[in-house]
Design goal:
Elements: H1 5-14, E1 18-20, H2 27-31, E2 44-47, H3 51-64, E3 68-71, E4 87-90, E5 97-100, E6 105-108, H4 114-122, E7 126-127, H5 138-144, H6 151-154, E8 161-167, E9 173-176, H7 182-188, E10 197-204, E11 206-207, E12 211-219, H8 223-233, E13 241-249, E14 255-263, H9 267-278, E15 285-286, E16 289-291, H10 293-297, E17 309-317, H11 322-333, E18 341-347, H12 350-353, E19 367-376, H13 382-396, H14 417-421, H15 425-435
Parallel strand pairs: 2-4, 3-4
Antiparallel strand pairs: 1-2, 5-6, 6-10, 7-11, 8-9, 8-10, 12-14, 12-15, 12-16, 13-14, 13-18, 17-19, 18-19
Helix pairs in contact: 8-11, 11-13
Length: about 450
């Protein structure tokens, strides 16, 4: 959509940040995100520096009929952070972070990555649940719920959220917390970007020192035995232990299956708890050792470098029945790309004990998220890699819940958005109708507004 030069000049004057168009230096870099398949061209990219900048952008888009998208970390695979012909509100430069070590809280701006946030907290020996791939942005992770190595002990990222400052569709800056606009706060905790643009997050922090982290890796031929062991071992783990499984190809080109761990309690007790895993079968490698929490957080970064093409599918599974394990192993054996992984992310402990209605994130059970993480390099290989992920999901579907984690939804999965929220969907839609009655914020995994009765 074309914007008149006079209006564009007014927007540029109103912002402390900058506004880029297709002819400007930096435009192409600003519109690029983690998934190289996404190649959208916004009419404008507003690189915001303050909450006031965000308010100005919302008002400008409303006045000029522009569709908006919001980019913070830019790590979303679905590509919703960028929109063709509209206004991309880019928060990636907003990296302020203030730690209160006495009250164990953090106030963080939305442009921070996990690596940056974790570093700021660990200076004081503190942390909160924050994903497992450190270039991920904190904003999208938190808004969708937020898994990480600490979630069994301390809950999801959104469970550790104390308040937010948020710009809603009317351009107002509100504070939302359990005491102030509690309905809006409930919707922020897992509801994605449906109700506004968060300008700062306040988190509860916890004392986290060195952890026991690493993986035990086994030959791919043992995959069925390893996953059966994992199904028995993981549900019985104490809250201090999070365990995820994966099937992948090592850097040496060897197919493998492994179980990754993070223990955040007393190290000597953790060694005893992990002994059954470390003595099960004969591993190819065992890297479990005491390490800094930030090193555990970035241990998987090499598996997800920038510049690759991605197509992901996922679903929840309560237990790994033999028939479901057979499907996982079969499709892992015929991955078309050596970069593709099949992963199982554990939902356990504190995260699973929160009542389903307490936050917009509804999937509170001991279970696994089975992730089909297809990634490859060349556009010519799109069809075969996307096809593999879809076929794998179709084969696994009979073994999965009718549920999905919103942060794992692809751009072509609008039919599954209700599955992301289950029994909470109607409540989320009603709250969206209050704060965004025209569905202004719709470049997301969109929850439709509830029609008003005359």
């Amino acid at each position: 959509m074309m914007v008149k030069e006079a209006a564009l000049a007014q927007l540029r004057t109103a912002l402390r940040g900058s506004v880029l168009t297709s002819g400007d230096v930096g435009y192409d870099a600003a519109r690029q995100i983690f998934n190289a398949m996404i190649d959208c061209r916004p009419a404008l990219v507003a690189r915001c520096a303050t909450a006031a900048d965000i308010r100005a952008c919302v008002g400008f888009a409303q006045a000029h009929g522009l569709v908006v998208s919001v980019r913070s970390g830019g790590h979303n695979v679905s590509g919703k952070a960028v929109v063709d012909g509209g206004l991309m509100i880019d928060l990636s430069l907003m990296k302020g972070c203030r730690i209160d070590p006495v009250h164990r809280t953090a106030r963080a701006e939305p442009g921070l990555t996990l690596a940056e946030f974790d570093h700021n907290c660990q200076v004081f020996g503190l942390a909160t649940t924050m994903g497992a791939v450190s270039p991920t942005g904190i904003a999208g992770l938190t808004l969708g719920g937020g898994f990480g190595w600490l979630c069994s002990k301390y809950g999801l990222t959104c469970d550790n959220l104390l308040s937010v400052d948020i710009v809603t569709a009317d351009g107002r800056l509100r504070t939302a917390s359990p005491l102030e606009h509690p309905d809006l706060f409930w919707a922020v905790c897992g509801g994605g970007g449906n109700v506004g643009i968060v300008t700062s997050f306040e988190y509860r922090l916890h004392e986290v020192g060195p952890v026991l982290g690493g993986s035990v890796v086994f030959p791919f031929a043992k995959a069925k035995d390893v996953l059966a062991f994992y199904d028995d071992f993981a549900p019985s783990c104490p809250d201090e232990l999070s365990v995820n499984a994966a099937l992948w190809t090592t850097a040496d080109g060897v197919p493998a299956v492994g179980i990754g761990v993070a223990w955040c309690g007393a190290l000597d007790l953790g060694e005893r708890v992990l002994r059954p895993l470390q003595t099960f079968e004969t591993p190819l490698a065992d890297t479990i050792a005491p390490m800094r929490y930030v090193d555990r957080q970035r241990a998987s970064d090499a598996f997800f470098p920038p510049g690759r093409r991605h197509y992901w599918k996922a679903g929840w599974q309560r237990r790994l029945a033999p028939a479901g394990i057979d499907v996982i192993v079969e499709f892992a054996a015929r991955r078309p790309s050596p970069y593709t992984r099949l992963s199982l992310q554990q939902m356990h402990g504190a995260a699973a004990r929160v009542p389903p209605s307490a936050t917009a994130f509804v999937h509170r059970h001991d279970q696994w998220e089975v992730q089909m993480l297809s990634q490859w390099l060349e556009p010519a290989d799109d069809e075969v890699n996307i096809g593999w992920a879809r076929e794998c999901y179709a084969a696994l579907e009979p073994h999965l819940e009718r549920a999905v984690y919103v942060n794992m939804l692809g751009g072509d999965e609008t039919s599954r958005i209700r599955e992301a929220y289950g029994a909470n969907y109607e409540r989320l839609a009603a709250i969206k109708t209050i704060y965004d009655p025209t569905n202004f914020f719709r470049s997301n995994q969109n929850v439709a507004t509830t029609p008003r009765l005359n």
